[in-house]
Amino acid sequence: MPILALPVTTPDSATFEVPALVRSSISSVDVFARKERTSSAIGGVRREPKNPSIQFEIGQQSIRFSYVGGNALPQWAKPVFESLASRWGTERGWDGYKAQPTNLALVAELMNCLEEAIPAGAKAPIVTPLPDGGVQAEWHKGDMTLEIVVAADEAPRYFSYDSESHSEQSGEFDTSVAEIRDFIAKF
To answer: Whole-model pTM?
Structure first.
């Protein structure tokens, strides 16, 4: 069940959504807010309360994510966005080679993966951009590692390594959410 998605896919099931319209000076990923209207008892129309959002500056751009998963951002959201903002790939070649700029839709997809996988009270990951415009969430503790990767050319994947159990696993995110959630709880 995706949490973050482009509105043209499944906005009703998305927790983080990317708006179809992005103005030239403002990039926004409306991951949390849908403008829904409901009828009131006296026949009028009222707006639903606004969903929480988070906004940060990347170079000359203001980027806003909106959360449609509830009335408050998850505990992990702010540290994740701070991590991402400090590492955002702003332009082509940000890595000194031919890296693509960080893609808002792939960030939204990662946020939806995190919404699905991070248990309450768990440590937030560090988020880093990938050269193809994708993003990766990482947890490290001693010799234990977990990565959730949302690349431009494939479905979200994960990789985990636990030196205590000498266990190394990888696979598609969607088929392993319960195992990933259990692994995150170890950090």
So the answer is: 0.74
